[in-house]
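User: Please predict the structure of the protein below. I'd like the answer in structure-token form so I can feed it into my own downstream comparison script.

Assistant: Understood. Taking the following sequence of 109 residues as input:
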Amino acid sequence: MGFRSNSSTIYNIFVLRQIYLKFHEYNFDLHNIFIDFPQAFDTVHRVAIYSSLIKYNVPHKLINLIKLTTQRNKMKMKVNNSYSGWFEKKTAVRQRDPLSAILFSVLLD
């Protein structure tokens, strides 16, 4: 809800506080997990993606095509107006790639 025009996180914080109070009132255990999705998106191991696709019975031909698009991603970094050498990115999925969001969702599920 935050970082959008005409919305704030105040209502969400209020809802969370009410949940905490009710759980405390009725003496229930409450566990929370907060995930930094951009960071999680950058640390996905490709082998885990392929395993998830196999579990969802995705055809092997499609998995092989996805492997071809996600492997051997090379990049370089720009530091102080000069570029580093090429290196291979072994984790993560490409940002702003339409397929990346789908693959991340399959893995997350």
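That's the full token string. The longest strand covers residues 73-75.
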